[in-house]
Amino acid sequence: MTDVGDVATHPGTEHVELDLDGMTCAGCAAHIEKGLNSVPGTVATVNFALEVASVDFDPTRVEVADLLAAVDASGYHARVPAPPGGSEPSAEDGASHAAPTDELGRRVLVVGLLAVPTIVLSMVPVAQFDNWQWLVFALASPVVVWGAWPFHSSALKALRHRTATMDTLVSLGVTAAWGLSLYSLFGGAAGDPGFGMGFSLDVSRGAAGDEIYLEAAAGVTFFILLGRWFEHRAKAAAGDAIRSLLQLGAADVAVLRADGTEERIAVERLVVGDRFVVRPGEKIATDGTVESGTSAVDESMLTGESVPVEVTSGDAVTGATTNVGGRLIVRATRVGADTELARIAQLVRRAQTSKAAVQRLADRIAAVFVPAVVAVAVATTVGWLVAGDGAGFALTTGVSVLVIACPCALGLATPVALMVGTGRGARMGIIISGVEALETTRRADTVVLDKTGTVTEGRMGVVDVVTADGVTRGELLSAAGAVEDASEHPVAAAVVEAARAEGLTLSPVESFTSRAGLGVSGVVDGRAVVVGRPAMLAADWSLALPVDLAEACDEATGAGRTVVAVGVDGEIAGLVVVADTVKPTSRAAVAALRELGLEPFLVTGDNAAVARSVAESVGIEEIRAEVLPEDKVSVVEELRGQGRVVAMVGDGVNDAAALATADLGLAMGTGTAAAIDAADLTLVRGDLRAAADAIVLSRRTLRTIRQNLVWAFGYNVAAIPLAVAGLLNPLVAGAAMAMSSVSVVVNSLRLRRVHSMWDDASSG
Q1: How far is CA 387 from the centre of its chain?
Q2: N or C terminus: which one in the chain shows less Cβ crowding within 10 Å?
Q3: Which of the pair, 489 or 264, is modelled with greater confidence?
Q4: Cα separation, 172 vs 346, whole angstroms
Q5: Which residue pairs, CB below 8 angstroms and at least 24 apart, start in 132-137?
Q6: How large a percentage of the chain has pLDDT more than 90?
Q7: What gap in Å lies between CA 382 and CA 588, rounded to an integer?
Q8: Which helix (DSSP H) or strand (DSSP E) does residue 254 occupy?
Q9: 688 near 649, Cβ under 8 Å?
């Protein structure tokens, strides 16, 4: 599903993301967005928290240079970021992230050293002495001119482009308070040696020239700068998850040359086809295929799964995962921006630039909010002047309106929460496509589960072994496994895997023969062994099943399982029952989905007996069996036609259409690219329990977004009337406005504490 605020990428449309500099509020973001969207053939979304513009454009009409020029024309600066890769960012990149926060921190420190004594002297009568006001003027003036220069500069830039931003409000408010104080000091009674002031949360009703407002000018500057510094720090923390994900890659790699020597090179120099060595404890440099060696790989950074995965020759491995076992030789299959890690980072980045419907409303409000606030402030000042309450009171009340009304929290409400939520999801192995997916998780009441590869392993496995009298399980599996080891049939592979899993040694087979679709035979340790369909053993080898084994065979066949009989030296030794095995975590996952309010349906192309057996084993009551791929869409549409909000979980090409049709599509990351592309949420690890985690995280993220927006709207709705009524001192207004933005970011950061429902559970 496509976010309604974004444009679906049509054939021929290209996408680019631009890093932005110079934004200070949601108004800036709205202004840049308007400028980009004015370019023909372009649809853009600007994310204030990420400082990123996400742009879809027609390359036959627009070039990237045109987009950069449009941002410059709006009074800001844009650049095309380097593509994400698996290597660690350079020191220069890290410095560029830290520099704005460090510079702001230094400014906050200097302003604080000047503003705090200004506030104390102005608001604590016992600290005042003859001519104290001139010391305050000397302390406050550098704050107003130098400390508040970022606000003045931004306001002037906006004025040149005939627009206004949050900084316009701050600049006007601070300048007005300072200017009124100048008038009082040099033209009124405030310059007298014995002049004194008291403390008040509201606005004093003294006449013009009887009060100074230097503590408001300095205090507002300090509190807003301090709030912005906290905001920068918090936003940096919000993006830590995805940044740390990108930093997990190896810095260098030992490449194996044709002559057998190793050469250690930077990861950036790797090319597809290179063979490289991964020793125990090292990170795998890039995505590839194991050519030799056996080991266990810790994939927790990618999938959230704490149990290492066993790999051997032919298995695929992912860059940035850690080799915790033996030595591996891997051939690189994807490098740089094509790796799984880079792809995940790009998916998360795209998701973070999307907007909820309510946030788009907030953006439209923010775009007109500043001019409206200036009008309200002017009207407030004029109104109090007409009412006869004095120029000082009227002007100070207008300043309070300007300061308290800054809509910064509105611009941060959605993007910061989404940044933290998607970043946390990436570390848990959950990729969220955008805000619309979050909005759907709240309403979902039905979940359709594909069987093969989702609820089950998607491969054959031994589910039962029935032995004849006098034959042990080990003897049966050893004989069957030794013969089947020479076959490539999926059933044979399941028997061999079961034998090796029990630590059995498989002897070499002699005189091996195979009959396609029927069975195999051979000589193992001098004994004639035949493994195959019971009918084949009866017809060709005169080996009929005894009554007890025949009953077990009929029961297994009735449940849709595959049964192979094993004969040794002319006697039936037993049966091996093979089926697509249910994942050990599926039952717990289904129970968790029920607890979250979703009714599960099992959908499969297998026969009803197989579907019923799987459904009973995991606790699902509703079944749709013998469903063709195109009919899965019909099942989803049927349920939606009943008024249900349907989530679909699948992994194959045959699930892609149903995933796209469902209200919410969840793709298993172990599945096909078609399924992942059609889904709203991707579960990186092939564990159905991740679906429950994804629902919980998505709902928590959406709830946080709504909390942020309620607070941001509610704050302005409540605070502006108080300021208009003269009940808010500009100093208090400045502190409250700064803290409103910080509170939105801090509330969003709580999402970093969301953990998997299964953190304390065993891996099985």
Answers
A1: 54
A2: C
A3: 264
A4: 40
A5: 133/185, 133/190, 133/191, 133/195, 133/212, 133/214, 134/185, 134/191, 136/212, 136/214, 136/215, 137/181, 137/185, 137/212, 137/214
A6: 24
A7: 67
A8: strand 252-256
A9: yes
* The one-letter amino acid at 415: P
Q: Find out whether 7 and 40 touch, Cβ atoms under 8 Å.
A: no
CA distances from 670 to 458, 595, 650, 652, 739 (A): 11, 25, 10, 9, 44
What the block records as the tokens of 309 is 């995965």
- Residue among 450, 651, 687, 693 flagged as catalytic: 450
Q: Is 464 a catalytic residue?
A: no
State the helix-helix crossing angle for 357-386 and 26-37, rounded to 10 degrees: 120
Mean pLDDT value across residues 497-508: 90
> Could you report the per-residue pLDDT of 149-186, keeping only the tens digit for each?
988 988 888 788 777 777 887 888 788 888 878 888 88
The two tokens of residue 428 are 């848990």
CA distance 231 to 237: 10
Torsion of CA 505, 510, 515, 520, to 10 degrees: -30
Half-sphere exposure of 98 (CA within 13 A, CB side): 6
As a three-state string, the secondary structure of 739-757 is: HHHHHHHHHHHHHHHCCCC
Q: Which of 76-90, 585-599, 618-632 has the lowest mean pLDDT?
A: 76-90
3-state class of 434 per DSSP? coil
Backbone dihedral angles phi then psi of residue 211, each to the nearest 5 degrees? -135, 155
pLDDT class of 629 with cuts at 50, 70, 90: low
Classify residue 145 by its DSSP letter: I
Do residues 220 and 111 make contact, with C-beta atoms less than 8 angstroms apart? Answer: no
Give the span between the Cα atoms of 506 and 479, in whole angstroms. Answer: 8
Structure tokens of 366?
């923010």
Query: Strands (DSSP E) along 544-674, which ranges?
Result: 562-568, 571-582, 599-603, 622-624, 646-650, 664-668
What letter represents residue 45's amino acid?
Answer: T
Closest CA relative to residue 311, chosen from 331, 292, 339 = 292
**According to the per-residue pLDDT averaged within each range, which of 184-188, 399-403, 520-524, 535-539 is highest?**
520-524
